[in-house]
Write a structure and sequence with these properties.
The radius of gyration is 42 Å and the shape is elongated. Helix 1 crosses helix 3 and helix 2 runs antiparallel to helix 3. It has a 4-stranded antiparallel β-sheet with strand order 3-6-8-9, with no helix packed on it. A 3-stranded mixed β-sheet has the order 1-2-7. The protein has 2 domains: 317 residues, Outer membrane efflux proteins (OEP) (Up-down Bundle); 83 residues, no CATH class. It is built from 8 helices and 9 strands. The longest helix is centred in the middle third of the chain and has 67 residues.
Length: 452
């Protein structure tokens, strides 16, 4: 569901569109050009199936002609003339009588021909069946490519979305710290007026306030870049202003969502499945090419209607008839063309096998790396949570001490910065954990791990 945070009525400002993670993924899958390209490939495979399946059906055509002809004996002026026979340019003493090339009739007539022809291949070395099956597997391969693209795009959207949530959370932490710093500044001013603190405390706190303001401005600039990256994945216009809805600390994974073995990764990974289908396509293609020198048996039929024959007897009688039969075509020698095509297909199959092996090794490395990173991040998260408790306690003590004139402003600032640092590190750890989980989901095909 799209949630609009409200229409801002101030001039120059526009409404922000608050988007949830699920909606961001849905929009990206619908709008991203990479998905459209893969969908077009599936449509292309469907068209190839139609073409391949057409070879299983008979082919029929009609050829008809109508024309007017005029044949005159005058076209052969040498008819009946004796011409000497020459040998190397010298007469031999013999003569020959010239005759017309054909007994063309001396009449004008209109000619009409009509032929209906049908041809059906009875046997073609299983080339047609293998062609149809190969297009089916090609469609499945393209479908797996689409699922791989969608899984990869989902992973990228999650990374961008989590990055936006992280920056939003860090900005909140810094704004809270800035609020506390302003309170310290007010406290220092009050103590200075009472003669308890020096002017140095005021200047020091003012310096920290300006420093925190500049960091917040810097973070907001990074947030703008992060939102642009997310909008690009969603293919949204630059004019649309979005904000990611949610809190990174509230994003949790469903229990038991992680794959338990590398075999689950291999089984679910869409790229591996696509390569498997493409090998099937090449296997069918090899059989098609190998059948190039096999005989082709076909049946044919013809029905014809003729009028005004343009060959003897040159009459204007209407004639019709039919002819049916079978034919056999055998390629005796094609200059090793078929052999070369089969070798090329086998080389392509070996290339796919090598690519699959390399992809399997890559998946194993990324899977194990992700699991190690998750374990390490969880350990760091536990340690940082304990450090945060200590740091917050130390800051509380420093704050009380400063109010009572025991702690210096530098000690108070150091305690506050330490809390800020640990909170930021915890937010980064949480983002990194979410990305590792999303990566495992992508490796497994993008179907098993869902965010609440």
């Amino acid at each position: 569901m799209v949630i609009i945070s409200g229409v801002l009525t101030m001039p120059g400002l526009k409404a922000q569109r608050a988007i949830k993670l699920e909606e961001a993924i849905s929009i990206a899958l619908q709008n991203n050009p990479a998905v459209a390209v893969d969908k077009s490939a599936i449509q292309s495979a469907e068209a190839k199936y139609t073409q391949a399946h057409s070879t299983l059906l008979p082919k029929a055509n009609i050829l008809s002609k109508y024309f007017y002809g005029n044949n005159l004996p005058g076209m052969y002026p040498l008819e009946g003339v004796e011409v000497p026979v020459l040998n190397n340019g010298n007469p031999t003493g013999d003569n020959i009588v010239m005759h017309p090339m054909a007994p063309f009739a001396n009449n004008d007539r209109d000619v009409f021909t009509f032929d209906f022809n049908m041809v059906y291949p009875i046997y073609a070395g299983n080339k047609r069946v293998n062609a149809v099956e190969s297009t089916k597997q090609l469609k499945q391969a393209y479908y797996d490519n689409l699922k791989e693209t969608e899984a990869g795009l989902t992973f990228k959207v999650k990374k961008a979305f989590y990055n936006n949530l992280l920056i939003d959370a860090v900005i909140k932490v810094y704004e809270e710290a800035l609020k506390q710093m302003n309170a310290h500044l007010d406290l220092a001013k009050k103590a200075y007026n009472e003669g308890v603190r020096s002017e140095f405390d005021i200047i020091n706190f003012q310096s920290k306030v300006e420093e925190f303001k500049s960091k917040i401005i810097e973070l907001k600039g990074k947030r703008k870049v992060a939102r642009t990256a997310l909008k690009n994945l969603m293919n949204l216009p630059d004019t649309e202003d979005i904000v990611c809805e949610g809190d990174i600390e509230d994003v949790n994974l469903e229990p038991g969502a992680l794959p338990v073995s590398l075999e689950q990764i291999k089984t679910g990974n869409h790229k591996l499945q696509s390569l498997e289908k493409m090998k099937g396509v090449l296997n069918r293609k090899e059989k098609i090419e190998a059948a190039g020198n096999m005989p082709t048996l076909f049946a044919f039929g013809n029905y014809h209607v003729y009028h005004g024959m343009d060959f003897p007897p040159f009459d204007k009688t209407w004639r019709n008839g039919y002819a049916v039969g079978v034919g056999l075509k055998i390629n005796l020698f094609d200059g090793n063309m078929t052999k070369g095509k089969v070798q090329e297909v086998k080389a392509d199959m070996e290339k796919i096998d090598a690519y699959r092996e390399g992809l399997t090794l890559k998946l194993r490395y990324e899977y194990q790396t992700a699991l190690e990173n998750i374990e390490s991040l969880k350990a760091r998260e536990t340690a940082k949570n304990m450090n945060l408790q200590v740091a917050e306690k130390a800051y509380h003590i420093a704050e009380i001490g400063y109010k009572n004139g025991v702690t210096t402003n530098i000690e108070l600032n150091d305690a506050q910065v330490n809390v800020l640092k640990i909170k930021t590190e915890l937010l980064n750890i949480k983002k990194s954990l979410l990305i590792e989980y999303a990566k495992l989901e992508y490796l497994q095909g993008g179907d098993s791990i869902n965010n609440k």
